[in-house]
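Q: I have three molecules that I believe assemble together. Could you output structure tokens for the complex as a whole instead of separate predictions?
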Amino acid sequence: MTYWLVKSEPDAWSWAQQLAKGVEPWTGVRNHQAAANLRAMKPGERAFFYHSNQGKEIVGIVSVLRPAYPDPTDTEGKWVAVDMKAERTLQVPVTLARIKAEPALADILLVRNSRLSVMPIPDAAWRKICVLGGIAP
DNA sequence: GCCAACGTTGGC
DNA sequence: GCCAACGTTGGC
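A: Yes, here they are, computed for all three components at once.
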């Protein structure tokens, strides 16, 4: 069971929209490392939903409803999408600043590689962020 | 708005 | 195959 984090610019797709819609295809990933992570996702695995650019905070949790399939927005057919389902909203959003202030979280890819949009999150970091977010892991 | 980090493109 | 130029992402 791997935990994940996915980024979305709230201008393009916000947590409020995800909550309202429930299930949404996660499309448009055009980076090989991120795409490899999408391909590794299994149904039922969970991911933090992070608002990039505006907010810069983890706001919710989604789960993988449908694993990797050809991204319908890719005409060449070489990239993949997954379907994400809204699970729950964090009691307290966990900001990037808060994460950076936490020595135990200094090594996560969100901090180490700010440009990666889909990444795995180690179990211990997942639990820590859930605590910071005011929810049970 | 700026810029660092990173990926991609194209000339050689 | 190297690397400079350029574009994009995303934090500040």
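A: One point stands out. Strands of chain A lie at 3-8, 23-26, 46-51, 57-70, 80-95, 118-121.
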